[in-house]
């Protein structure tokens, strides 16, 4: 089955600040191919030359609107599309879905909601295997849906957003090495200058899931390369 994180994502948004936020958010969650467009014309060129696997489409664009853009795109492409709009009226939502949008999300949105909806649309479309919802780590269970960590004695903690992104990336490659650069990219959207910060967040994550964070059984350091999430705690 196809890895949804190999999908090419096109962000169509005319507000540069919001466009950068969405692109960084999507890249931080693990999508490796993300491009953007700020106008209908730029979007159509990108679609024709790059063939994105999914699109996040703003409604209000300087040279048109997302509804008309989607209508045009649907003549040649069935790539999944999510309308991202400040308009939350039922009429606008129904119009978008009627034109072939796969989902509709209103601004302001929760960052986690946006990436979860994007992942869900891609899984439905391309049949990628779903990430595990519950991750068993010895006496500790992590619910990636809620970010809750629960131990056998009933105690628990909640992962921060960065800890969640870090663990999610390790889970996707469980048993294999994930480089430090790849982890930093998943958490911050870039690998440059985050080596020390990554070590700090790995330490904090270990404190929440390991019996002895100084002698980890699950999140293992692979010296000179990165980290590996053990499959069974036997290292």
Characterize this entry briefly.
With 235 residues, this protein is an alpha/beta fold.
Give structural notes:
- There is one protein chain.
- The protein is an alpha/beta fold.
- It has two domains: 4-126, Response regulator (Rossmann fold, 3-Layer(aba) Sandwich), CATH 3.40.50.2300; 134-229, Winged helix-like DNA-binding domain superfamily/Winged helix DNA-binding domain (Arc Repressor Mutant, subunit A), CATH 1.10.10.
- The chain is 40% helix and 23% strand.
- A hairpin with a 3-residue loop joins β13 and β14.
- The protein starts with 7 loop residues before the first strand and ends in a 6-residue tail after the last strand.
- The model has no long low-confidence stretch (mean pLDDT 89).
Q: Portion of residues in helices?
A: 25-40%
CATH topology of the largest domain: Rossmann fold
Mean pLDDT: 89
For the biggest β-sheet, the strand order reads: 2-1-3-6-7
**What's the overall geometry?**
elongated
CATH architectural group of the largest domain = 3-Layer(aba) Sandwich
What is the chains' assembly state? single chain
- Biggest β-sheet description: 5 strands, parallel
| Uncertain segments | none
Tell how many strands the DSSP assignment holds.
Answer: 14
Tally of individual domains: 2
Structural class: alpha/beta
Discrete helix count: 8
- Please report the distance between the alpha carbons of the first and last residues: 28 Å
Return the CATH class of the largest domain: Alpha Beta
Taken in chain order, the helices and strands follow as: EHEHEEEHEHEHEEEEHEHHEE
The CATH homology group name of the largest domain: Response regulator
Domain Response regulatory: 8-122
GO molecular function: phosphorelay response regulator activity; transcription cis-regulatory region binding
GO biological process, one term: regulation of DNA-templated transcription
Protein name: Response regulator with CheY-like receiver domain and winged-helix DNA-binding domain
């Amino acid at each position: 089955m196809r890895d949804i994180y190999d999908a090419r994502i096109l962000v169509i948004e005319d507000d540069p600040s919001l466009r950068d936020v969405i692109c960084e958010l999507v890249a931080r969650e693990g999508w490796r191919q993300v491009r953007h467009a700020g106008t209908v014309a730029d979007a159509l060129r990108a679609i024709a030359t790059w063939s994105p696997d999914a699109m996040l489409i703003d409604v209000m664009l300087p040279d048109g609107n997302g509804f008309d853009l989607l209508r045009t795109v649907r003549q040649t492409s069935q790539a999944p599309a999510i309308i991202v709009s400040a308009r939350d009226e039922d009429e606008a939502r129904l119009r978008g879905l009627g034109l072939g949008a796969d989902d509709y999300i209103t601004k302001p949105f929760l960052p986690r909601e946006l990436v979860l909806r994007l992942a869900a649309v891609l899984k439905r479309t391309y049949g990628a295997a779903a990430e595990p919802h519950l991750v068993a780590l010895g006496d500790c269970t992590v619910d990636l849906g809620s970010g809750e960590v629960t131990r056998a004695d009933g105690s628990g903690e909640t992962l921060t957003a960065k800890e969640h992104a870090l663990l999610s990336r390790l889970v996707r490659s469980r048993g294999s090495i994930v480089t430090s650069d790849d982890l930093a990219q998943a958490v911050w959207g870039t690998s440059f200058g985050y080596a020390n910060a990554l070590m700090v967040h790995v330490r904090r994550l270990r404190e929440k899931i390991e019996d002895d964070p100084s002698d980890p059984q699950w999140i293992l350091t692979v010296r000179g390369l990165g980290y590996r999430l053990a499959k069974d705690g036997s290292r």
